[in-house]
Amino acid sequence: MKKVMILGAGYAGLRALRELQKKTKGFEVTIVDRNSYHFESTDLHEVAAGTQPWGKITYEISDVVNPSITTFIQDEVIEIDAKNQEVHLKDSGVHQYDYLVVSLGFRSETFGIPGAEEFALEMIDIDSARKVHENILAAMDKYKETQDRKYLNIAVCGAGFTGIELVGSLVENKKEFANRAGVKKSDVTIYCVEAAPSILPMFNDELRKYCLDNLAKWDVELMTGKAIKGLKQDTVVYADGEVEKELAAGTIIWTTGVSGSEIIGKSGFEERRGRVMVKPNLTDPTYDNVYLIGDVSAVMDPETNRPYPTTAQIALKMGAHAGRNILSQIAGQPTTDFKFESLGSVASIGNTHAFGLVGKINVKGYPASFVKKMIMNKSLLDTGGVKEVMAKGRFDLYR
Ligand SMILES: Cc1cc2nc3c(=O)[nH]c(=O)nc-3n(C[C@H](O)[C@H](O)[C@H](O)COP(=O)(O)OP(=O)(O)OC[C@H]3O[C@@H](n4cnc5c(N)ncnc54)[C@H](O)[C@@H]3O)c2cc1C
């Protein structure tokens, strides 16, 4: 009986599990995650802003486990010893495997900016996203006590895809924040600080303009071309030309970038920022029985000669591919190479506004927000199946 282990029940890990569970003979699977639930990382900004309860973007991992071949262990992965085919878990010790899928996802990248770890909130899982929302509400309470204007300021560091989606959801919940502080909605200010001169280089001018026009209409203070030099308590220090300036804010959220799980480097894989340049079949360059997929993996895009960006879309595709390749290996068949063609990407700015590319076609406004929700439902379907779509799917099309 071959032993397959999957580390991490995010998009990539659960998609691999679904593929493996299509066959039920000749192997057993163990899937490990630190949480009892899977969370939709693409919706974390909504929990952080308080526009969705965390239960809406999670479901129990046991719901998608077929107990006749799969065991779920809720535990923390400490280290992988690929040479000895072992995984070290915090509470349940050492586990042996024949085939391993590493899908441990992302962590926040501070790029060594002083004070970022200490004074900014990250948004990488359910706990950290909930902390952001709690911090905003606590800051609004502090404003009531102190009348210090800084508590009404929310600073988002980074205007990439995640930062902009977060800003959109924060705008949507400004009324709740203002009510809590006992002020007008216009008194709560959302800042977005970005080193690059413009935002979202992956989108064309028309889509960027749609986004920028809306942010301006919603009074978002978009501070592009302002490199963050450091953070202090309730303060973002940034460069304005040659001059260093400070922005005071009761809530500071860090969304400048991500790298792959720290377990990758700690386990001795050849990596860069927690990502391994895998072979075309998605296995590690040294170990043919170790698949690295999702945000811990780097696959070259032959068009740009750079690794594909890490997204849920590619993580899902890699999960399915790794699952199929492991089934082939168990059956003594050759593996196949991974091929990826992006279906485009759509960024939401609040519940009813979005913009992006579907294939090569621009979509924006309400139709784009509809497309975005259908994309979310599709990824729920890919990991959790119809049951989870019915229970947790996004059908809030008109709010
Ligand atoms: C706010 C936000 C919005 C986004 N929007 C989009 C979008 O619109 N479209 C898109 O394609 N992508 C989007 N992304 C990117 C996307 O979420 C990631 O690329 C995707 O989650 C990667 O999938 P994964 O399976 O590799 O990892 P994850 O989904 O992060 O799953 C990793 C799993 O591993 C578990 N884990 C981690 N470390 C350990 C450990 N040591 N022990 C045990 N378990 C562990 C975690 O609990 C988690 O369940 C967004 C990301 C964010 C944060």
UniProtKB/TrEMBL annotation:
Q: What class of enzyme is it?
A: oxidoreductase
The reply on keyword Flavoprotein is yes
Q: Which Pfam families match?
A: Pyr_redox_2
Question: One GO MF term, please?
Answer: oxidoreductase activity
Keywords attached to this Swiss-Prot or TrEMBL record, sorted alphabetically, are: FAD, Flavoprotein, Oxidoreductase
Q: What's the EC number here?
A: 1.6.5.-
The FAD/NAD(P)-binding domain is annotated at: 2-319
Q: Which cofactor does it need?
A: FAD
Concerning its family, UniProt says: Belongs to the NADH dehydrogenase family.
Please name the PANTHER family in this protein's record. Answer: 64 KDA MITOCHONDRIAL NADH DEHYDROGENASE (EUROFUNG), APOPTOSIS-INDUCING FACTOR 1
State the name under which the record lists this protein.
Answer: NAD(P)/FAD-dependent oxidoreductase
Q: What is the lineage of its organism?
A: Bacteria, Bacillati, Bacillota, Bacilli, Lactobacillales
